[in-house]
Amino acid sequence: MPELPEVETVRRSLDPFVVGRSVNRVILDTPSVWCGAGPDAIAGLTVTRSARRGKYLLFFLAPTHAAGTAYWLVVHLRMTGRLTLQDAPEPARKHTHVRIELDGETMPPIWLIFQDTRRFGRFSLYPAQSADQLPAALPRLGPEPLEPSFGAELLARQLSGHSRLNLKAALLNQAIVAGIGNIYADEILFASRLSPQRLAGSLDDAETARLADAVRSVLLRAVDLCGTTLKDYVDGWNRKGSFQHCLMVYGRSGQPCRRCSLAVQKKKLAGRSTHWCPACQPGLPD
Ligand SMILES: [Zn+2]
């Protein structure tokens, strides 16, 4: 948490309010959350684009002079990070780590505030060539599942080198498909009627097509519903998501499957709590 739908929702909620504004100042309350170039480098620069790659949220900062340096500010919210906007400056609080004042020429300033109780979230600042080219420093990420090019053929190719990986581990691997975490991996496998214990190399063409369809449909629906709020997650204006009301298996162990009424099972797989229905998602015996 947050996964692709939550990060995309945060991006969409911030974009209209931050793009076009320039950075007045950055107050770094917790230096350890900031990596790369120092925060002073972006003072005076203008946010000209927001983007998302997997679970990373990116802002392109353009200089006012052609000779100046442009930057990508890359934010990873990790477990409990929140990036929200406020009209008034937020006083320094225990879990507030970064405060960025954004100016608008004809608008009052606005504050972009980063809070994180677990403190795993990170801001990274990289000099940039152009707004069309994402920073090379991002880790190797697989295809974006919401791009039109994503489908059964591409997923089969991505899975081909990982035939001994179970499906839960394969979906969590950001180099195979970008953006999926624990909640959506379980929901995608339920929607595709595939056991999380099945090996990636055991899928036939029809099963791979079902999995690719489920990756897209579950993530698209979750984006439409502004993500899943179980505890911490909110968008850029402190609004909760509503996909938590649509969860079929995640967090429902012992409760009846919404499709067949058999109890939803839970066990550790790929090091993560994994939820599935053994009747709807038949797999190999343990
Ligand atoms: Zn079921």
The number of domains is 2
User: Please, what is the average pLDDT?
Assistant: 95
Residue windows where pLDDT falls under 50 for at least 5 positions? none
* CATH structural class of the largest domain: Alpha Beta
Bound ligand species = zinc ion
> SS-based structural class?
alpha+beta
Q: Major β-sheet, in short?
A: 5 strands, mixed
Name given to the CATH architecture of the largest domain: Alpha-Beta Barrel
Helical run tally: 5
Gyration radius from CA atoms, angstroms = 20 Å
Topology, element by element:
Blueprint: H1 4-18, E1 22-28, E2 34-36, E3 46-53, E4 56-62, E5 70-76, E6 81-86, E7 96-103, E8 110-116, E9 122-128, H2 152-159, H3 167-172, H4 182-191, H5 205-224, E10 265-269, E11 272-276
Parallel strand pairs: 2-9
Antiparallel strand pairs: 1-7, 3-4, 4-5, 5-9, 6-8, 7-8, 10-11
Helix pairs in contact: 1-5, 2-5, 4-5
The site of zinc ion (ZN) has 7 residues, from loops.
Kindly list the characteristics that best describe this protein.
single chain, 286 residues, alpha+beta, N-terminal domain of MutM-like DNA repair proteins, Helicase, Ruva Protein, domain 3, 2 domains, five-stranded mixed β-sheet, 5 helices, 21% helix, 24% strand, elongated, binds zinc ion
